[in-house]
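Long-time lurker. I teach an intro course on protein structure, and each term I like to show students one example going from raw sequence to a predicted 3D structure in token notation. This year I'd like something fresh instead of my usual example. Would anyone be willing to generate the tokens for the chain below so I can use it in lecture? Attribution to the forum is fine with me.
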Amino acid sequence: MTAYPSIRLRNKEEKRLLQGHLWAFSNELVEVRKDLAPGSIVRLERENDGALIGLAFYNPHSLIAARIISRTEVEINDEFWKSRLVAAASRRELLLGRRNAARLVHGESDFLPGLIIDRFNDIVSFQIASVGFEAMKSDLIRYIDELWSPVAIVEKNQTNLRKLEGLELITQVHKGEDTTTEITDELGTSFQLHIESGQKTGFFLDQMENRTAIRRFTNAESECIDLFANEGGFALNMAMAGARSVLAVDASEQALRRTEANAGHNGVRSKIQTEVGDCFDFLKAHQKQYDVVVLDPPALVKSRKDLHAARKGYLQLNADSMRITKPEGVLLTASCSHHVSREMLRELIQDAARKARRSISILEERGAGVDHPVSLAMPETEYLKVFILRVH
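-- Reply from a regular --
Happy to contribute to a lecture. Here you go:
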């Protein structure tokens, strides 16, 4: 058994970790050891008696100094990592029986802190947000290849969380040359993707089930709008549900061209119009009302210090979105900022209703799909909040 170096947690700081949280912060440690390389595996111990709290990745240069990878004394080797990856992927087997794209590994919720792995048909992409997995990246790529034999493996390390770990941003193809593929959701909407140039890990998988859910509120008489449409996932599903018309608005002309291409691929090009523009400015000037409005903005809160300004942004966006929703129409509103709690978003939506002089009722509260599980011990893992509202 490898003897891992020890770091100690201050007395009375272990309660949160013993309840299931996986992070120990630098100010909770007795000493931040500078003699250990970032990414080292350490034995995290209680200060008073040296009892094991867990084996962890260590980063002396990050606020998150230790990320627990095991609660017990085990050998951290190829067998350990492969079994963790297989266990995570096996939790998605039923889902992958209904569609050909899913998140295989969702970081802390799958006991693989700082690691995201997504499967898009025959391509696998990964994202690393911890120095521990960065240190073993070549092994990780080997595991992915051995376990799933994808035609391409794409590193999509563009998250700003890497900067907090002292890591550079990078996109790189490690296997294969062609990173284009086609995925299909559970109701048959297909998307032609280019993983290397796509958003996040190649495509926003977290909203897959919310996109199909919007179909229940759409019929042949519905006039719909998709704000911050990106590649038009919601727009396509509303059109596929039979909507009379759908307007997709986004600041990225390239994303909207992909929306148009996918609309044509799905046989609904005539139903979808696109408009390039800043959605904040668009909403201020727009007067037409719609039966179904989708508001899915990017994260407006990058850190807690941005929370006040971002709250004003969310308030204005939601108030303006309610204003362009027809009486008795439906508004799907979302926030992917993990600093904005579900309770905070609920209060913000009510404030927006007062500002817009509309009444609202909640039809559904949703989050990310089942392949993006939330750890109850780690509220940080619940980043996506979705409300489907009736606007009176």
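Some talking points for your students: The chain has twelve helices and 19 strands. The first helix runs from residue 15 to 18.
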